[in-house]
Amino acid sequence: MSMDTSNTTPTSTQPPPPPKQIFILSGQSNMAGRGGVTNKHWNNIIPPQCTPHPSIHRFTADLKWVPAKDPLHADIDTKKTCGVGPGMPFANAVKDVVGEVGLVPCAVGGTAIKEWARGCHLYENMIKRAKASVENDQEEIRAVLWYQGESDTSSKQCVEAYRGNMEMLTDNVRLDLGLPHLPIIQVAIASGDKKYLEEIREIQKAIDVQNVVCVDAKGLELKEDKLHLTTEACVELGQMLAHAYLTHFHSK
Description:
Shape: globular
CATH superfamily: SGNH hydrolase
């Protein structure tokens, strides 16, 4: 006698899709991306290392996942023209190793580290966006990529407060996201007011906090404004950040 299976629901053998590996992009203009921007216009030239890919996603200002493409920060850093930054070359360099990549842009040009203190709009918006990006079990925050400090090279007072502010930022982000060991890859700045540029750089390179590593941007090519990275330098920095992540944190 045969068994009636007409009402039987087949069991799927397909595994669930892997979670997006989330990376928070934060800091100021060189993270937001000014590559290819001249006279307040972006030339729309996309280097091959920044090419969109189906496995790379961007979290929009209205908290939705969309295919990622430059300029990643167009709806975040809205007071300036954004272009190529380090985010897309980073994602393209890690995607074949980590799988689905989710980028959460949060950087805003011209911001000092004190503006990223807990309770300030920039910090609270970053935390809000980070939390919203992982509202289900298909996303996991893997690291914060942080490039900031040019706005703190103008005064001795900013220099003296920088280390404490950066360490407090690290503690607060980890506490507010419930990720006590969250990796933070910070960039030692390549430009700024020469008066205190080296002092800020030395502080950034000397910060000794668990799971915080530093990538040095010194020597990367700057645009004519002597402040922002060129398109080629943004690509190189993105690849440096990818190397740092894969070397220090991917296996953890």
